Amino acid sequence: MTAVRHHVTIKGVKDGLVFLLDDACELSEVLGELQHKLEKTHEKILTGPIIHVHVKLGKRAASDEDKEQIRGIIGQKGNLLIQSIESDPPEIPLAAPGENLSLLGGIVRSGQTINHNGDLLYMGDINPGGTIVCTGSVYIMGSLRGMVHAGVDGDEQAVIAASHLQPTQLRIATIISRPPDEWGTSDTFMEFAYIKDGQMKIDKVHQFHRMFPAQLQDRNISRS
């Protein structure tokens, strides 16, 4: 007999419950099972005092609308208080180990500037007042709260990516970003900036492979 695959797993943890939602099927299937478990099979368990809930989406990239559907279903149970709905952090699709990609690390503090020739993978934070100027793309495994100028010699194919993208300013080639308070988003997790039709755009890192497939080639990382 074939075992039934569960799309929703509910686990108890120290500070409440974790809902693990399958990322390998249609979201509609997950939502249907979630609704069923909350209304039928787990109804007695999910009653009583307030319970904090963390929802884990695995590798699924959920839109705001998807998250609202999840909130709506779980929120029907008045004692379930959602603390977070999170996907696994995607790997930054660096132009992969390679060709002209150097690795640096540390903290760029206010008043400090790093100048680099080629693509740069930076392991650390860029503080307000700190600056990176690069002829290629810049990938930051940390918080970008300062300024980055990528493609400084005019390369509009350069990109700027960061684990947390909260810059004072971004520049790619000759294009300058809008002020941060005009971005219209508070979700700065795993984003990248790029140029399209002469304007700077911001998108999630998991969209990178669709927009820049040519950059996802095997390369060798050189350490500076």
TrEMBL record:
This is Probable septum site-determining protein MinC. Interacts with MinD and FtsZ. Gene3D superfamilies: 2.160.20.70, 3.30.160.540. Residues 8-85 form the Septum site-determining protein MinC N-terminal domain. PANTHER family: SEPTUM SITE-DETERMINING PROTEIN MINC. Coiled coil: none annotated. GO terms for biological process: cell morphogenesis; division septum assembly; regulation of cell septum assembly. InterPro entries: CAP/MinC_C (IPR016098), MinC (IPR013033), MinC_C_sf (IPR036145), MinC_N_1 (IPR055219), Septum_form_inhib_MinC_C (IPR005526). Transmembrane segments: none annotated.
